[in-house]
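RETRY 2/3 - previous attempt timed out on the joint model. Re-submitting the same 360-residue input unchanged.
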Amino acid sequence: MRTILLNPGPVNVSPRVRDALAGPDLCHREPEFFDLQDGIRRRLLEAFRTPRGEYTSVLLTGSGTAMVEAMTSSAVPAGGRLLVVQNGVYGERIARIARAHGIEHEVVACAPTERPAIDALALRLAHTRYDALAIVHHETTTGLLNELAPIAALCKLKGTRLLVDAVSALAGEAFDFARLAPDAVVCTANKCVQGLPGLSFALVKREFMDAMRGYPERTLYLHLPRHHDEQEKRSTPFTPAVQIAYALRAALDELIDETVDGRVARYGRAAAIVRDGVAALGLDLLLPPALRSTTLTAISLPRQLGYPALHDALKRDGFVIYAGQGPLAASLFRVATMGDVREEDYRRFVECLGAAIGRA
Ligand SMILES: Cc1ncc(COP(=O)(O)O)c(C=O)c1O
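RETRY 2/3 succeeded.
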């Protein structure tokens, strides 16, 4: 039986993506690798419909955090200041990265079940000059989707760079590059893009990449312009995850065929099956509909079952659910609706969940 991964990445991938791993052994300094790298970078711009000529893409070997750290540590000029919006674990991680690199920063913290108040953000930006604002599009901690449009408009007004951690969102949530005009957006291969773990990527305004070249090089390995400029020259600074790149190319071909809109709609149907199903079982959802993402649902634990027992019962049925994080661990579990999973699998999950509760 195929195990259905309901954790928010790594996700189930298609046979085509997994089979791509078996591509030929390749030296990463040969033209064949640069064809692969160029093809992925081109497909990223195409799949996410970035305005022609305005954006460039960068690949990085490493998980999503590596690319979040590459973006954060590369995107603030010397003596510059960063504002971090924090309403979950991943916003907090951006602030930790800024601290680790000695970047002057402030945090707008709100409850993990709340979006930041736009008025308060506007006030902050009116009083203090921030070179960049960083925000998580989808807070995987809770399944909360931050609304980017008003924040993008504020950043535009103030000349503040907009940096987006879209690690658990891009390809699974609507994201209009032309309308939002973010300066940098980062993501991983193995969530909604449906590739395998080991590669991450960024989509960056070309003009911002040019500016970043003049910013301090705070790390050797994660300096974003280094990766970009080498990739532009059909080169690579370090040894990349070659086979994972084969899988990413196949995953992007699938995404381009399905289209981002098509995938968002498919994930939306999956989320509706899960949400309607758990509601019918009498379980509560953490967030009201207006705050929910498409790609993850945080659900109250059944009274009769603690997380470990629920997890183990569902795993025996072939489903891997995900625990709540931090203080939410005692009361919640999470179900992601990402990956190459069929609607009938989500229906069977709801049945198995009901049966596990019934047995308890
Ligand atoms: C929003 C967000 N940012 C960053 C990360 C970190 O990604 P990784 O675990 O691939 O380093 C995650 C992982 O779930 C995430 O959901």
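The mean pLDDT is 97. Closing ticket.
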